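Let us work through a complete example step by step.
Step 1: write down the sequence.
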Amino acid sequence: MSILHKARRFEADLTRAVEQKAREWSKSGAREPLEIAQAVVDTVAERLEPAARGRYVFPYNRLHVSIVASKDDRARFAAVLESEPSLRDRVALRLREAGCEPGGLQIVVAYVPRPSPTWPSLEYHVDFARVASAPAADAAP
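Step 2: predict the structure and record it as tokens.
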């Protein structure tokens, strides 16, 4: 792991900790949908793996994003996450900036009423998976 990659992870961890403490101290409410979208993109970027010659690879092709939202808030989140640029577009851009080609990246968004106790964030969670792509149909002999 390169020093630059370690520094980026440290910066992201530090930023997340400071923002969480600031929200707790100021007793501010939950983040806005656009802030959650950016946090999801940052979480994805943290999973980039260093490869040869200063390049990075993204080892996953399926993301399941769970967002804590009430029934009323779901429309707000859907409007932001589906508008241009969509969440997938934002993630793809961040991956391209790191030199990765997002290819067949699939992102599924689900809304949940409350976070799981195992989530690192109380507002959203991203499950990463690498699944085999469907094999191409064989040509008839």
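Step 3: interpret the result. The two ends are 48 Å apart (CA to CA).
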